[in-house]
UniProtKB/TrEMBL annotation:
Binds 1 [4Fe-4S] cluster. The cluster is coordinated with 3 cysteines and an exchangeable S-adenosyl-L-methionine. Binds 1 S-adenosyl-L-methionine per subunit. S-adenosyl-L-methionine binds at residues 43-45, 78. It is an enzyme of class 4 (lyase). Its cofactor is [4Fe-4S] cluster; Mg(2+); S-adenosyl-L-methionine. This is 7-carboxy-7-deazaguanine synthase. Pathway: Purine metabolism; 7-cyano-7-deazaguanine biosynthesis. One of its GO terms (molecular function) is 4 iron, 4 sulfur cluster binding. Keywords: 4Fe-4S, Iron, Iron-sulfur, Lyase, Magnesium, Metal-binding, Queuosine biosynthesis, S-adenosyl-L-methionine. The gene is queE. Substrate binds at residues 18-20, 33, 76. Homodimer.
């Protein structure tokens, strides 16, 4: 029987870096990367988090986070919501006074996530290979503190993302609608030009850390 007085999580890494994505882009942030993911997006830049990792108690994770004296925390993975104790971690991070975001594929139910968290939900595009995993009912649970991201691999993906943005009236429903090129798959400039040509009410975004650190571990 697991000891729920001292819950644990399997995690790949904890590091302090510059937030490279989403609304808090550019801000110093502690990243807590949980291990494991039930999806296999063909562009995934964190396949090293699919397995392995280390089991840590929530107390030990909070101690490690505190050692950096951060203001912002990003819980990511892997797919963080694949571990049920993630919900407790998120709650405890909020209780400790941090500003917390959660990166999630949206394939798992987000409705149990503490509303103080900014949920950054990635609606998987057709060319990710995982669009069939999208749990569209999740969209109903999102609000102005949340963000929806589309990682775009092709012109077809762009057209699909534009359609979903309109279908769910995302710009009025969530705080940010992010269109990001799949790194190395679609020219960033091309995506930027499509957005301008269509006058889309979305935020273009590139993964800043790829330019600062070229995907080195720990950033
Ligand atoms: C590694 S995932 C972890 C959280 C969750 N599994 C998800 O997919 O949202 C964090 C974010 O990085 C994005 N990402 C992964 N590989 C990427 C790539 N090659 N180019 C652009 N974004 C990428 C994902 O789409 C997701 O939005
Ligand atoms: N610097 C940096 N910013 C990030 N924002 C989201 C990340 C992620 O892997 O989810 C990430 C990451 O891996 N590094
Ligand atoms: S859901 Fe996230 S972690 Fe999982 S394969 Fe896709 S991008 Fe990678
Ligand atoms: Mg990353």
């Amino acid at each position: 029987m697991p000891d729920q007085s001292n819950p644990t999580l399997r995690l790949t890494e904890i590091f302090y870096s510059i937030q490279g994505e989403s609304r808090t882009l550019g801000l110093p942030t502690v990243f807590v990367r949980l291990t494991g993911c039930p999806l296999r997006c063909n562009y995934c830049d964190t396949a090293y988090a699919f397995s392995g990792g280390e089991v840590m108690s929530l107390d030990a994770i909070l101690d490690k986070v505190r050692s950096f004296s951060p203001r912002y925390i990003c819980v990511t993975g892997g797919e963080p919501l694949a571990q049920p104790n993630c919900l407790t971690l998120l709650q405890q991070l909020c209780d400790a006074g941090y500003e917390v975001s959660l990166e999630t594929s949206g394939a798992l139910d987000v409705s149990g996530v503490d509303t103080r968290i900014s949920r950054v939900m990635d609606l998987k595009t057709p060319d990710s290979g995982e669009a069939h995993r999208n749990l569209y009912t999740n969209v109903e649970h999102l609000g102005l503190n949340d963000q929806v991201k589309f990682v775009i691999c092709s012109r077809d993906d762009y057209d699909w993302a534009r359609f979903q943005t309109d279908r769910f009236q995302l710009p009025g429903r969530v705080g940010e609608v992010l269109f990001s090129p799949s790194h190395g798959q679609v020219e960033a400039r091309q995506l930027a030009e499509w957005i301008v040509a269509d006058n889309l009410p979305v935020r273009f975004q590139m993964q800043l850390h790829k330019y600062l650190w070229n995907d080195e571990p720990g950033h």
